[in-house]
Amino acid sequence: MPAPASPTADAPAVTPMAFVRAMVAAYERRGLDPARALAQARIAPEQVRRPQARITAWQMERISYAAMQELDDEGLGCFQRPLPWGSYGMLARASLSAPQLGRALRRWCRHHRLITDDIALAVESEGDTARIALRPVHDPSVATEFCVVSVLRNILGLASWYIDSRIPLSAAHFPYAPPPHVDAYEVLFDGPCTFRADHAAIVFDARYLSLPIKRDEAAMNQMLQRALPLTVRAYRRDRLLVQRVRQTLAAHPLDTHNADDLATLLNVSTRTLHRQLKEEGASLQALKDEVRRQRAIELLLRTKRPIKQVAQATGFQNEKSFIRAFKAWTGRSPGEWRGEQAP
After folding, report:
1. What is the extent of the structural domain holding 65?
2. Sign of the C-alpha dihedral, residues 90, 95, 101, 103?
3. What is the pLDDT of residues 195-223, one digit of tens each?
């Protein structure tokens, strides 16, 4: 695997130094000196000891690459036994022949138990929601922050690469307390993060599981020449229109009353909007109902706004149509539903 490309001068330093300290600890457990790896990543030894210090994505790629080579461990000390060089490449190749992402991910998770039995990974799906769960098998202490973040970022990056699409997260759960650098999780995981959970998991739209694998063996060979960015950097392109529609409806409730207005905001034609949503197994009306329902419930629960203001903030043109829609969703009027939720 070639070394990472040259750094850029204006790259932001957002990766917590805590991850570097985890690698340094792996060196120390094996009686090795991390000085060479730190130097290659342009990290001064005194920086490592600073609790609030951060590094750039290039530095994270560089020290990870050097440590994997020197430790001969692609797990970077996360597991009881090292994962020899090429372990994760083997998992990626073994999953490439799957026709759809869901099958590829399930195969990847199953094969991960062959290289280490310290953790169990599983793809779980219910309704419109999918999740990749990480649970320790023998010792709960193996689910350290560095282990959890590394493994989940690894599988999320590979999944995005398989389908050539960013996979936006609707939630991410972690089995430890919020770390001092909790703000970095906004970059590491783009969905709302919760801590002190029973186990680690990333949650996303289940429709991504049915998307076809877009890569072939030639693309795999090329990717494995520089695979670390898939783990370290966010995948930008989003191929699933349904997710963009949800985000736009939530961000512009007053400007998306009809399909033409929504299509304009998305830079697609109205015909393309309806056609692609149909191909993805969704309808515009169902998505509007879903986003409006979630927003209405949130406002009714967390605020004391009058029903008329909730209707306006949710994107309804009048209170009467909002009450009618809310009754269809819940069987109760907004006022009745709010009253039932009161302690």
Report:
1. 13-232
2. negative
3. 999 999 999 999 999 999 989 998 888 88
